[in-house]
Amino acid sequence: MTALIMQFWTDLSPLTWFLWKLAQVGAFVLVLSVLLAFLILMDRKVWAAVQMRRGPNVVGPFGLLQSFADLLKFVFKEIIIPSGSDKGLYILAPVITLVMAFLAWAVVPIAPGWVMSNINIGLLYVLAISSLGVYGIIIGGWASNSKYPFMGALRSTAQMISYEVSIGFILLTVIFLVGSMNLSDIVEAQAGGFWQWHMFMLDVSKPMSLILFPIMFFMGVMFFISALAETNRPPFDLPEAESELVAGFMVEYSSTPYLLFMFGEYLNMTLMCAMFTILFLGGWHAPIPLSLPFGLAVPPIIWFTLKCLFMFFMFAMVKAIVPRYRYDQLMRLGWKVFLPISIAAVIFVSSWVVFFGDKL
Question: What is the pTM of this model?
Answer without folding.
Answer: 0.89
